[in-house]
Each structure stands twice: as C-alpha cells, then as structure tokens.
C-alpha cells in the first residue's frame, strides 16, 4: 500500500474476530515510513458494521466525535498509538494518551487496528496513570480477546510502564502545539465502507 498525502481521508477501521467492528474517517497529517499521524475532526460520525460483539460506543449512543478532536501518532510495529487531547474554550493541551491497540495495517482506504482497552494517560503536568485495567480483564474473560492476546497486551503495558518510569518518550513534544486547519470539512464515510475487503 502507498502512503497518503497530508489532508487525505484515511479510514481507521477496527477489526475484531476477523470482522470489521468500528470505522472512523480521519484526516491524514503526516504519513512517512516511520510515522503515521491522523486527526479525528470534531463532529466526525463513526460507522459500526453489524457484529456479534457490539461496540460499547454503539450501545451507549455515542455516534460522533465531540470536543476539540484527537491527534493520533503511530509508529510501524508499535502495539499502541500516542493520542493527543485538548480541553476547554482556550484549547489547552491536556496530555498524551497511550492507546494500546494492534499495530496498524495499511489498507486501500486507510488502516486497520483493534483497540485493546488498556491505556495509559500522561498529563501535561507530568506523571502517568493506568486506565481501564478492570474493563480490559473483564473483556478477556468475556472472550473479546484470547488468553494469548491478553498476555501480549499485558506485556505491552509493562513495557510502557517501564518506559514512562524511566522518562523515555519517543514522540516530539512540539505536537502539543498542533492546530487543525479550520477550513477542513468533516470527513465522511465513503459509499461501500461496510463492504471494503480486509487486507
């Protein structure tokens, strides 16, 4: 698969148990061999294909992205993304969210992954907090993830904790100053988005 140009729309598709589970159209900021950065524009509508394991956002009526949008940074092979969040009327940078997920896989319309529920929050003022451990363990027990996947996710979590404790971060803190182009339209799901094939 080729690289996307800045401004292109790339579909971030989550694949669970071999079937598409959730799809979010994102705006490409940077796409190069070592880094893929995409932005979820405020108001972006999510797509939820039919699936035997309902997505929690779908069941709670969470249909679109709210707030200031979300920037997501991905390195090839990493089992997590680094997501940036902003808060309040002044769009104050809030922090970095290490979102454990499958390493991204390129597709003709974007990239595939799967959220792993377990996450780490690194606030702008320093420190870090583990998020959603109980939900993750419950989902392993319910069969969303296999026992092997569960062990791999826990191992990634320990590696992230060790890096954070050591103060080792690979991302450029200048991304905290990112400002989206106000003229960007909200990306939409293309016709046939439910049917485009897995790689």
From TrEMBL:
It comes from the Bacteria. InterPro entries: DUF402, FomD-like_sf. It holds the Pfam family DUF402. Transmembrane segments: none annotated. Residues 54-168 form the DUF402 domain. This is DUF402 domain-containing protein. It comes from Saccharothrix tamanrassetensis.
